[in-house]
Amino acid sequence: MDIKKSLFKLLVICLAVFLIAGCGSKEEAGSEPEKLVAVALEPEESAEEQAVGYIEELTAEKIEAWAMGCSAILAVRNGLEPYEFGMFTRSEMNAVQAQILMIDSWNCFNRNDLIEIIFSMTDQGHNGSFEKAFALVRLLSDDELEELVEMSEGPDIYMWPMTKELGEKWGDKGIKAWDWFRMMHLVGWGYVSEYFEIEEAYDLMIPIIERIRDTFDSWEDANENYMDGFAWWSCADLSDPDESYEYYIRMDIYENLKNDPPSVNLFNPILWPGYVPSENDSALTAGPSDGDNFIIEDNGDGTCTITGYRRQSGDLIIPKVINGLEVVTIGARAFEDAKGFSGVLVIPDSVKTIESRAFIYCKGLTGNLVIPDSVTSLGSSAFEYCDGFDGDLILSKNIKEVEKRTFIFCSGLSGKLTIPEGIEKIGPSAFSGCEKLSGPLVFPKTLTTIESTAFNNCAGFTGVLEIPEKLTLFSPANVFKGCLGIESIEAASGNSAFAAIDGVLYSKDMSKIEYAPPGLKKNNYTIPRGPIEIARDAFRDCTGLTGVLMMPNGIMKINTEAFINCSGLDAVILPTDLVNLGSDAFRGCSGIKRIVLPAYLSFLGAGAFADCTSLSEALFQGDAPDKFQQKTFSNCAKDFQILYNPKKSGWTTPEWNDLPCYPK
Questions:
Q1: Are the C-beta atoms of 479 and 452 separated by less than 8 Å?
Q2: Using CA atoms, how far apart are residues 37 and 17, in angstroms rounded to an integer?
Q3: Is 0.70 surpassed by the pTM of this model?
């Protein structure tokens, strides 16, 4: 007899014996396959007969419906197919994916490994560990439990109370659905991976299904036990939503999925013994139609809101009408984390509102991202981390605001970004990380406000950036940080907040230098007279500044990181009026060899000249600073030294603050 077939037959018999009888041999997980086989060599004849009986009762259609119900939450969470047996369409490519999934999740490399794992779960699984833990706490009084918690550390602080609570809640049921659902997952993946044929997968699932429906009353009951098991296994502190993110996102998935109508397989109540079908129940089907794939809420006016989906694969084409209702809103988080969609996104021109996080983390969507002109409201983080889009971004002409993080890290979008007339405000980080958007960035005349980091690290923008007349509420150096390709900046003459000279942006009264784009190219640049302050990050990453940088008298303050990474500069002449030099102001200016620090300088920030790797000499013309941090000159040239005016006080030689120091 074929050894593989014999081993498989023994596995089926062992599952039937254990799950029908509700007991096992108590072998530990990881036992040798031969030992497990030996345990199953002497099953009662009736077990095999009963297994055959199950086959007659549970049709292929019902088995697949059970498999989909047990796997639905995990399938959706992992971007797989809840309406496919085994969570994948069986194909050569998906067989490899399923095999990789089992290797990563279960350390399962072949058919025999999979059989061994399933064998071991019949005896133990996580429920065995749970029962042992509950046995330790079940007899403790509330005071004794509190004392145990006080003696505990880390997750044990909340795991002991959780164990007692779940044990008392479920009794003999333990967290068995957690183990049995996972066994169903494994058998399904075994089929997709081509370790099992379909008949073999059915035979393995039948006794598991029987045990589930004999132990639990409904899908609601079984899924609640499954999720409690997940919480216990993952040591989830349910009082902290951030620490229990995976638990709560799975609960959200379940809440969406259980609203499926009975016409689809997921959580169909007709599968349960004793359920009395109503006239609204339908027979099992292979899955929803295109319209049925979307979960909707009736708005009561002939329109609807899409709140979720039932399956994910291929293109995401949203219909204009579902069940006779016009689709006008895509609800908050409707398609969150739906990585299984792997084609284009089509939004119909009936949609008026896209709510917050509607498509967040839909990383598989590709092509152009087109927001139709029918859309008048686009919520925050609506397309956050949708980095699969690799075409143009076309915005609706009828929105007034691009809210915070709407397109953050859509790093695949390419081509020119056109911001339509009518948009008045761009929120924080709205386009941050859209590094492949290219060409000039053109703002509409209606734009009044850009909030922090809106275009950070959009390195592909090039050419001249013009600030329109109404755009007065923004901090340019913060908004355009990392926009390395912008070469020059101009401001409309009627702008009441800003003015531009030689490609550099100033405050309207010329008292402050606001921003110089990183692509600015100037050799031996002399800053015009007038400003008294240089803004934070003003000349950040301006590697095109070369030669000598001359600063006129009158400038009293250079803010943090004002000239960071201006590596093309050979020398900097600081103004004699300078009082405050901010932290990291010239960090990374690796070409500077010598710096003269003026007599009135009273504040020298940490790291002001850090990583100036060619800097070998700093001449102080005034008294030694009252406060000085070692990192101010960290990672300068190996022969770096401080020189000082011997007529000034506070200096010591040959060292000052552990740096070589000598009179000039």
A1: yes
A2: 13
A3: no
Of the candidates 625, 617, 624, the one whose C-alpha atom is nearest the C-alpha of residue 642 is 617
Other CB atoms within 10 A of residue 367 CB: 16
The beta strands (E) that lie in 310-462 are given as 314-317, 321-322, 325-330, 341-346, 353-354, 369-370, 377-378, 393-394, 401-402, 415-418, 425-426, 437-442, 449-450
Nearest-10 Cα torsion for 178, 180, 182, 185: -140
Nearest to 620 by CA among 611, 608, 527: 608
- Identify which of 145, 166, 156, 160 has the alpha carbon closest to the alpha carbon of residue 230: 166
Which of 279, 339, 335, 288 is closest to 309 using CA atoms?
335
As given in the structure block, the two tokens for residue 235 are: 């040591």
Q: Are 292 and 263 in contact, with CB atoms under 8 Å apart? A: yes
Given a cut of 90, whether residue 84 has pLDDT beyond it is: no
Question: Which helix (H) or strand (E) is 295 found in, with range?
Answer: strand 294-298
Name the nearest CA neighbour of 189 among 204, 210, 173. Answer: 204
- Res. 121 pLDDT band, cuts 50 70 90: confident
Question: What does the longest C-alpha to C-alpha distance in the chain come to?
Answer: 106
| Confidence bin at 2 (pLDDT 50/70/90) | low
How far CA 322 is from CA of 86, 290, 291, in Å, comes to 28, 9, 6
Angle at CA of residue 564, ends 559 and 570, nearest 5°: 115
Do β-strands 449-450 and 545-550 pair in parallel, antiparallel, or remain unpaired?
Answer: unpaired
> Are residues 237 and 158 in contact, defined by beta-carbon separation less than 8 angstroms?
yes
* Euclidean distance between CA atoms 36 and 14, whole angstroms: 9
Go through the domains of the chain in sequence order and give each one's CATH number: 3-20+27-271 (no CATH), 523-664 (3.80.10.10)
Residues 6+ apart with CB under 8 A from 437: 393, 413, 414, 415, 416, 417, 431, 458, 460, 461
Q: What is the pLDDT of residues 178-197, one digit of tens each?
A: 999 999 999 999 999 999 99
pLDDT, position 292: 61
Tokens 């969609």 sit on residue: 341
